[in-house]
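User: Let's play a game. I give you a shape written as tokens, and you guess the letters that built it. Ready? Here's round one.
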């Protein structure tokens, strides 16, 4: 079994359909609207545009993970002390955020809307409950992203 599979809660490739759909609200933040290519989830995500830049039409891999430790050992979620001798899940990605699920709204047709905050940068992920079952209310998690 791939070591990353032990810690991954959700993974898909998203195509960015709109950047800042309601106009740019903050100078250092881009809000991207994207659709998953495999599970057809809908994603609305704020990212720090001074650190990571994306464009309309680009595809990005998004992973939600419970820990960055490849062996699956729990993260302390209060600090991150990278050890140069031990690889982490973050090594394979270009942009990483840590946050907490603050709302889960179960809808008809087995759909769920997951809302999370990453230090004020927000995420809303909507999709089939079967694909998002590993994400739980009030869970602390990591969002990892890289361009495809």
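Assistant: Ready! My guess for every position:
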């Amino acid at each position: 079994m791939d070591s990353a599979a032990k810690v991954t809660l959700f993974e898909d490739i998203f195509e960015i359909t709109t950047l800042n759909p309601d106009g740019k609200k903050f100078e250092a933040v881009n809000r991207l609207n994207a659709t998953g290519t495999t599970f057809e989830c809908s994603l609305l995500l704020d990212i720090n545009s001074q650190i990571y830049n994306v464009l309309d039409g680009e595809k990005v891999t998004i992973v939600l993970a419970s820990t960055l430790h490849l062996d699956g050992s729990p993260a302390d979620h209060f600090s991150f002390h990278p050890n140069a001798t031990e690889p982490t899940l973050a090594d394979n990605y270009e942009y990483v955020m840590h946050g907490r699920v603050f709302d889960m709204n179960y809808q008809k047709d087995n759909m769920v809307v997951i809302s999370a905050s990453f230090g004020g940068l927000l995420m809303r992920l909507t999709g089939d409950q079967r694909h998002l079952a590993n994400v739980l209310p009030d869970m602390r998690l990591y969002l990892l992203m890289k361009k495809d």
